[in-house]
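Anyone up for a design puzzle?
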């Protein structure tokens, strides 16, 4: 880490809890590699203290910060400007300071899309299947819309929450369809993109999978299986999908890419993506 001096600029991440965040690992590695006199630190902020904390950040000259649970939605009214992407997702994960106040956007969408854009698929012919209907699923839906997917199939366990999810979208160019898990055997053979946005299979419950192996067998060879989870690496879900001949993408790449997009906003420098990824793999003990 760079030596902290009287001229060191401050970046950070806010959340509650925050001790689990990997953002300080990759961002400080990147800042050191870039030779910038910045430091990136975690701030545990209770929901009732959010407004006071953001005002305090402005006073002490914080340049920008990442936003994680539970503040991604509640921070929006405290910002002077919010990007169209963040409005569509309904959440902000990256904030920076300008002369007019705090501005916010959502880099999760760009982070999700980054590995997909390297693949040669006709997205206008693909109907993605998304497992889960929480906050992470919203960023994935917006990403799939930006790819040009005409329809998106959402799979969740709670019919009421699914209906609510379906009807919270405004001006979305893709059609949202909702399904229960028992309908997966019909959906999987027809898709080329299967995305898990649920926490099922995340450490420490590494033996779990959001889809039973027998059902996952219906996924077409050559389809993409994408898991937003990054530990374990790979998850049971991705291991089984790879056995089926699927192209697999893990959550570590999305984590790094969304962080890289944020870092570029704060520093106006090209982020050292390989160094960010390598720092996380070393920290997580991933080969």
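Challenge accepted. My sequence:
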């Amino acid at each position: 880490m760079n030596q902290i001096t009287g001229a060191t600029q401050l970046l950070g991440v806010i959340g509650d809890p925050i001790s689990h965040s990997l953002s300080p690992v990759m961002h400080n590695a990147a800042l050191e590699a870039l030779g910038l006199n910045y430091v990136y630190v975690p701030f545990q902020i209770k929901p009732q203290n959010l407004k006071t904390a953001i005002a305090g950040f402005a006073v002490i000259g914080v340049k920008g910060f990442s936003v994680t649970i539970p503040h991604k939605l509640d921070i929006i009214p405290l910002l002077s400007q919010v990007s169209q992407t963040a409005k569509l997702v309904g959440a902000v994960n990256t904030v920076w300071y300008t002369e007019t106040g705090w501005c916010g956007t959502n880099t999760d969408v760009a982070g999700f899309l980054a590995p997909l854009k390297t693949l040669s698929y006709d997205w206008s012919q693909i109907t993605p299947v998304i497992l889960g209907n929480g906050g992470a699923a919203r960023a994935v839906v917006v990403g799939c819309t930006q790819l040009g997917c005409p329809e998106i199939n959402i799979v969740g366990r709670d019919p009421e929450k699914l209906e609510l999810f379906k009807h919270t979208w405004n001006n979305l160019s893709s059609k949202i369809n909702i399904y229960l898990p028992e309908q997966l055997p019909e959906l999987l053979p027809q898709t080329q993109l299967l995305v898990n946005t649920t926490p099922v299979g995340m450490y420490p419950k590494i033996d779990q999978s959001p889809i039973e192996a027998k059902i996952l067998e219906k996924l077409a060879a050559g389809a993409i299986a994408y898991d937003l989870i990054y530990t374990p690496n790979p998850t049971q879900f991705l291991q089984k999908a790879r056995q089926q001949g699927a192209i697999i993408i893990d959550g570590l790449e999305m984590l790094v890419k969304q962080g890289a997009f944020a870092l570029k906003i704060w520093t106006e420098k090209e982020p050292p993506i390989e160094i960010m990824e390598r720092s996380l793999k070393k920290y997580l003990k991933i080969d």
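A detail worth pointing out: The chain has a mean pLDDT of 95.
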